[in-house]
Amino acid sequence: MKYSKGWGAVLIIILLLLLDQALKIWIKTHMQLHESIEITPWFYLYFTENPGMAFGIEVIGKLFLSVFRIIAVGFIGYYLYKLVKEKYKFGYIACISLIFAGAVGNIIDSVFYGVIFDHSFGQIASFMPEGGGYASWLHGKVVDMFYFPLINTILPEWVPVWGGEEFIFFRPIFNLADSAICVGVFLLLIFYRHTLSASLSKDEKK
C-alpha cells in the first residue's frame, strides 16, 4: 500500500508538470505578450508574464524569490516523502502532491525560461534563440494565461469613489500550477486540517 500511494503521488506530480509546462510552452511559442484568445465570453487565454509571486504579487527581489521557492520546494518534497513512508491517507498525500507540483511548475519558469526563450514583447518568442534569452538563470518570469472575467461592467455613478469606473471580477490571471497549489491548500483546509495540524505537531516534537 505504501508503494501504491507513493506511485500515486508521483503520477499526480508528473501529470501536472507535463500539462503545466506543455501549456506554458505553447502559449510562449504561439502568442505575443498580452495577446488573448476568447474561449467563452467569461474565459480567455490571456498571455501575461509574472515576475513575482502567485497572481502577479511582487514584493521581493526576483533572485531571492527564486531561491526561496527552491528551498521551500525542497522542504515540501521531504515532507511528502515522509508522508508516504509513514502511511498517511492518500487523500492527504494527494493534496501535498498538488502543492508540490504547482510549486515546481512555477520554479521551472523562474529558473529556466529567461535563458531558453527570448522576450515576447511585440513578437512570438523563440525557443533557444541564438542571441540568448531575455534574462539570466533564476530571473525568468512565470507564464500565466487563465483569465476569468466573470463580471465585466461599469459601476453606477452613485457608487462612492469608484462610480463610473470599469469593474471586473475575477481580475487575476493565473496558470495551472497556481491552480494546483490553490486546490491543494483548499482541500487541506476543508478535509485535512486536523491531519495537517497533527502531522506538523509530530514533526516539532521530534
Automatic annotation (TrEMBL):
Pfam families: Peptidase_A8. Pathway: Protein modification; lipoprotein biosynthesis (signal peptide cleavage). It is an enzyme of class 3 (hydrolase). The chain crosses the membrane at residues 59-81, 93-116, 168-192. It catalyses: Release of signal peptides from bacterial membrane prolipoproteins. Hydrolyzes -Xaa-Yaa-Zaa-|-(S,diacylglyceryl)Cys-, in which Xaa is hydrophobic (preferably Leu), and Yaa (Ala or Ser) and Zaa (Gly or Ala) have small, neutral side chains. The active site is at D144, D178. It is found in: Cell membrane. Belongs to the peptidase A8 family. This protein specifically catalyzes the removal of signal peptides from prolipoproteins. This is Lipoprotein signal peptidase.
